[in-house]
Target: Iron ABC transporter ATPase
Amino acid sequence: MITVNGLTGGYAGGEVLKGISFQVGHGELFGILGPNGSGKTTLLKMISGALEFRKGAIELDSRPLTQYSPKQLARMMAVLPQHSDQAFPYRVKETVSLGRYAHQKGWFHSWSEEDEQIVLKVMEQTGITHLQEKSIVELSGGERQRVYLAQALAQQPRILLLDEPTNHLDLSFQKELLDLLKKWAAEEELTVVSIFHDLNLASLYCDRLLLMENGEVLIVDTPAEVLKEERIKAVYKTKVKNHPHPEIARPQLLLVPKSDGNQAANFQIDASYLDIGSDRIALKTPAKLRTMSSGITGAGIGWHNSFVHRVVPMDYDCSDHKAEMAEFLQANGFLPSETVAMMTAVPAESVAHRFFKNGEVSIFIMVSAGNTHRESPRNINTWLFINGRISEEAFIQSAMTAAEAKIRVIQELQGSSTSDAGQSAGISTDSICIAATQQGELIAYAGTASPLGKLISDGIYSCTKQAILNYRAGKTL
Ligand SMILES: Nc1ncnc2c1ncn2[C@@H]1O[C@H](COP(=O)(O)OP(=O)(O)OP(=O)(O)O)[C@@H](O)[C@H]1O
Model:
């Protein structure tokens, strides 16, 4: 356990740390964050005993740091500093072996089998076994970083202090190094205290984070608590957006560049953008729209500038419809990565589409209904284009509002249908795409009571009804 209490001190030029207090538990992976010059390295130097402090206390396992001899400290703690390019021209294996120094007893300690095994093991764990005979000056920055980590691990410390350990490492070694540290922390109760500049890596791997600002602790808490958009924006003076990692429950912060190259003069999506052919209906937009869809391509949340409603024969049958759709798109001049695409078996001319406007708010809707031999459609595809900047809530509310309106139509038409329309609620294979231009003032809500929601509700109702009636008319021809 590391306990830091009221730590104050710095260099001859003045105080850098001002009353820092926190604790780190056994086996914890603890991250230190903060802007350049906030005092992170100074703090790490004081914990390692390399820099004296003026006031306060540091305890390791309830014993003051100052009571440990250098050798005791070296057995307990290893440090991986921010390395400069200076390096002694030792071979890799020799450099790693230096980590065993703290465990040698007396002047004439001979190299033991245990020392050898530990050095071989840590070289393997850090992926440098194949480099062992090379001189360290011949290595790349990332390779050298791994050698120094191996040296620190060879020390078999109980506490590992790291200053930006992933500096110089490529993506896969960043992950491997942090996976390894996490494993050692969990399995061997290694306590890891590490400085990070990459907030997202810190979020992914650390149990808790300490955020520093001007030599003080701003907050010590879990990544989800520390990495709040507003806090990071205030401390780093940079706009970020918080986005949850898609696979694990950790926040990730995304930078927002001043310009993303997706600018286009204000435009309004309406029927003039539609391009209706016999085998598809397409719509291309002047800039990418933010989309939420269940299309065959472009599913989920993304940014797309092509929208394709492909008309396939009734007997269309394909074992890999995603791959086949991608081929179709490419053959027809659409980039699959930029396209939301859906499929339908109704003739292109039977889709219903219309532009709706209410004051400042406008939307364009297209609905197809069909894909079955029955009288009632079993597949309803909906495109909803919103000319405006909408919030995350409004995206979800738009989908809810659209679904409610669609069900209203289906229930209403059940009464007028001569067959078992009740079976065909048009839900299971339906697709929806909600696309917003994300231009103009923010529209926060799209529930049925909001102006946008009302427009969506009325628009989806009338287009869905029209599409189903078109479909029925086609069937009776
Ligand atoms: N050896 C030194 N002598 C005098 N002042 C120093 C020394 N090292 C650092 N400082 C000063 O102490 C302050 C904190 O520096 P420190 O290196 O701890 O910050 P940091 O948060 O690690 O920064 P970075 O993110 O840039 O690595 C800075 O203003 C720096 O100029």
